[in-house]
Design a protein that fits this description.
The chain has a 7-stranded parallel sheet with strand order 1-2-3-4-5-6-7. Helix 8 (about 245-255) links the parallel strand 5 and strand 6. It has one domain (about 10-315): TIM Barrel. Helices cover about 45% and strands about 10% of the residues. It is an alpha/beta fold and about 325 residues long. It has helices spanning about 10-15, 40-55, 90-105, 115-125, 125-135, 140-160, 185-205, 245-255, 265-270, 270-285, 305-315, and strands at about 60, 110-115, 165-170, 210, 230-235, 255-260, 290-295. The protein has 11 helices and 7 strands.
Amino acid sequence: MPRKRKNKRELLEGLITLEAKWNYIPASFFTHFSKECHTGRAAINKHIDFFRYTDMDFVKIQFEQSFPKLDFIRRPKDWTAMPRYNSEFFREPIEIVKGLIKELKKEAIIIQTIYSPYMCAANSTSYELITKHVSEKPDLVMKGLAIIRDSLQCFIDDCVKEGIDGFYFSTQGGEHQRFENKNDFEGYIQPFDLSLLMEIDSKTPFNILHICDYWLLYDSVDIFTKYPCKIVSCPIALNNGQQVHANELYKIFMKPILGGMNRKGAIQTGPIKEIEKDVNKVLARAPDRFILGANCTIANANWDYLRSAVFLAHDYRRA
């Protein structure tokens, strides 16, 4: 069993300060819950059960409020008619925020998952369509992305009003071969990421940038060094096959790193002995300011596997 420790809020708040040495290693893993636990009291209870059972060190609220599919968007100019969603649209996820803040904020940091405007645009249509349209008529598509940004800003503001501690901001679009012209991401997608992250960073103290490699890998993560955040969740491998260790990522970002484990590796498949080997390998090369986790959400996660990895991190002592 892990050693007795201070309140989880105090531990995570200390992690984002420039302490010279950090002996305790926090850990958090994420998974999507079944559909019946996406809204209401069932969602609140499932998040609480997951937090308590795994002993993870902060609460990440999953965002299951999908942007509706928009079949009318077929040409770049159609993005100018992108709907703007208000507080009523986000009412159900806000109720989850309220419930978890009421029940868990005294003991743990609560953060809300949020997806980038590009990802929400892809959810409204498809990755293929939004990417194609950006390459063809970026000025028109940017009008739609601006509307999506404003909708997300509404959700952010509502979360802040309820007392959220921060956000887990997931970004895509900068992966290898996502755009034929690499400048498209930095020119037309990244500005909307930065706009939201600057707002988030000015209003909440505990924000995580998630560079999502769920679908495609990256040539480099250097293009994200300008993103304002307190913690960085990074890929563990690049498109060229190079493995990226947390200590190397820390040198790039000079911020605490979340991750280290392959979401499709032993943490998903087991057994626990293999998980222990993986955890020890990751922690042996981790920087002082580090949170053990996976490179992305773990599909169909076995809670016992996650619990074992969290306990191993909590009990780990650096030489």
